[in-house]
Amino acid sequence: MSRRVFVSAGAAGIGRVIAERFLSEGAQVAICDADPAAVANFQADYPQAVSAVADVTAENEMAGFLDALETQWGGVDVVCANAGTGGPAGAIETLDYEDWQNCIAANVHGAFLTCRWAARVMKAQRSGLITLTSSTAGLMGYPMRSPYAAAKWAIVGLTKTLAMELGPFGIRVNAICPGAVEGPRMDRVVAKEAVARDMSEDEVRALYVTGVSMKTWVNADDVANSILFLASDAGRKISGQILAIDGHTETLAPS
Fold this sequence. Notes:
Elements: E1 4-8, H1 13-24, E2 28-33, H2 36-45, E3 50-53, H3 59-73, E4 78-81, H4 97-125, E5 128-133, H5 146-166, E6 171-178, H6 184-197, H7 201-210, H8 220-231, E7 242-245
Parallel strand pairs: 1-2, 1-4, 2-3, 4-5, 5-6, 6-7
């Protein structure tokens, strides 16, 4: 039987690349995403996949989609809790509380709803892999991005805890910590930081490279490669790990 793989926020960006890579290996793939246009594009390109519009922070939407997926598949082998948002940029005293809440909700509450379902289903079958998307911002401080850093550190704690809870049932849980990933999402992040730091976007991009040992950004395929490795037989004993895919970030506050 082919592997059954669910990717949240899977219609665009990193999530789409993860979904595409599993599809190319013959897996059954399901995605959800809050962006109707992105889901429509994904459906058009991959009609063999299960796809739906669902907001990871909306309990009813996620429960409806995931319960239907469980009925259709009878279980799940790989769950990628990938959804998140960059949140606002700025010194903490300038931030709006609603923006803070939205950032925490998309990154942390969405992961909770996804992992709660995955844990129940995988416990019943006594097998499975869960990956959560954290960030290098979940490994160190990140000036001007406190909501995002707080959320991604929470994902690290959730990963470590779930690996302990679920390990006895044959379930592995790991976090992926991408660095700066090329693409539209980071373009938006750079634009926000440029305003917050009173710098040009090119200057902000240069700062990201300055703080990385390999002096380079990463791409979505780099992230997907790591998840496919974890899902392979070669990764079958890897659990509770926080894996940075970033060219070694030395600091998120380069001088």
